[in-house]
Amino acid sequence: DGGITQSPKYLFRKEGQNVTLSCEQNLNHDAMYWYRQDPGQGLRLIYYSQIVNDFQKGDIAEGYSVSREKKESFPLTVTSAQKNPTAFYLCASSIGPDNSPLHFGNGTRLTVT
Amino acid sequence: LAKTTQPISMDSYEGQEVNITCSHNNIATNDYITWYQQFPSQGPRFIIQGYKTKVTNEVASLFIPADRKSSTLSLPRVSLSDTAVYYCLVGALGAGTALIFGKGTTLSVSS
Q: How far is B18 from chain A (nearest CA, A)?
């Protein structure tokens, strides 16, 4: 089955540590995205990539970094500079950037203490 | 960038039709309207997408008036499993825009 895989489902880290969240897709989609969701809130865009080796900042990119070295992979690093990293992180992909529906993974819940 | 406004919550009973309306007054000519459903601790799932008039698939219908300043998601004969958050999205990435999800509409279906 084609889809998006996020791992791990739950992640715990100590404050001050960087952590990388994995996102892999086998849908052959060009565009990939990272969103953050806080309790009772909508999704906020962190970074997006429309093509390999290219990515753009979303609304809340500070304290995060990404890479897009392969079409199928778009890892997100939450750095120690992110002030409130505890959240539910969602990765998505779409065929292209224009009006294509998003396909989401099932998320990674990150807890930083 | 088209901002959307939806009701925060709605309640319904099993077997009823539910209509959720989304306002998007500054929708652009090239923008499509897309609806997603999200269950707790899961990623949103695509429901339906449209540009104008009416679109229907196996799970929902989407009604878009001629001025496209609003849209209505219609869920026929809801069941308990339709309890979820529903998001209306307008636009797409490209040309410097970004996909912004609002807080969505929390639909609660009771028996």
A: 21
